[in-house]
Amino acid sequence: MSREAPARFCERRRVRFPPPTHLVVLVHGTEADTAALREEVADVLEPLGLRLSQAKTRIGHMSDGFDFLGFRIQWKRKGGTNKWHVYTFIADRPIRSLKAKVRALTGRTSQQDLAAVLIRLTQIMRGWANYFKHAVAKHVFDRLDAFVWWRLIRMLQTRHRWSWGDVRRRFTTPTGRWLPITADGIELFRIASVTVSRYRYRASTIPNPWQPANPV
């Protein structure tokens, strides 16, 4: 939705509106039913000074999926079965955004203090992971964990002119176990360590605020 014209009119008077609102309407019916409902939604929003953006409003099937608030919501068949479920994945855009922030902090020629880099990476990744930990995120967290580790290792190799043998000597124990990357007592936050707790279907156990106090 968009309120572009009212925003332009009032911003000249230093009045700020919130950003455009994102709206998803799920319909149990045909594509024609959905198209008709779209017009009804537009009629309801018009008195509020809101309008549907023609460029961003679309009708799609749940099996095609849609992005909403950083998540990719899609109806898919569960692997190895004939059962279909609605899954909440992490969309591509926030993953690209996170990687861009990591790249900006871990350039091979960067001379930033390692402890400061680790602190900033922890702040970024912890908040990102806490937001997305209720999605189907375990494999994504694992890949991002490896991505961040390799970015830091390559940065350190360039900075200190380390060979791979130097890296192993500094970050492994005599038994070959890998040690965490640390600096001044600050340890690299491992995003793969975040517990993924996907939402559970609760059906009628969700409280209904409209339930009458004394049902007949």
Write up what this structure looks like:
- The chain is mainly α and 216 residues long.
- Helices cover 40% and strands 10% of the residues.
- The protein is built from six helices and five strands.
- The strands form two sheets. The chain has a three-stranded antiparallel sheet with strand order 1-2-3.
- α3 packs antiparallel against α4.
- The longest helix has 23 residues, at 138-160.
- The two termini are 41 Å apart.
- Mean pLDDT is 84; it is low at 1-13.
Instruction: State the helix count.
Output: 6
* Rounded radius of gyration (Å): 24 Å
In one word, what is the shape?
elongated
How many angstroms separate the termini? 41 Å
The beta-strand count equals 5
Helix content: 40-55%
Oligomeric description of these chains? single chain
- Low-pLDDT segments: 1-13
Walk across the major sheet and give the strand order.
1-2-3
Mean pLDDT: 84
Largest sheet, if any? Answer: 3 strands, antiparallel
Strand content: 5-15%
Secondary structure class reads mainly alpha
SSE order in H/E notation? HHEEEHHHHEE
Task: List the SSEs and their pairings.
Blueprint lengths: L3 H8 L19 H15 L20 E3 L2 E7 L6 E7 L1 H14 L8 H19 L5 H23 L3 H8 L10 E2 L2 E2 L29
Antiparallel strand pairs: 1-2, 2-3, 4-5
Helix pairs in contact: 3-4
Features:
3-stranded antiparallel β-sheet; 216 residues; mainly alpha; 5 strands
Overview in brief:
By secondary structure, the protein is mostly helical. The chain is 40% helix and 10% strand. It contains 6 helices and 5 strands; from the N terminus they run ααβββααααββ.
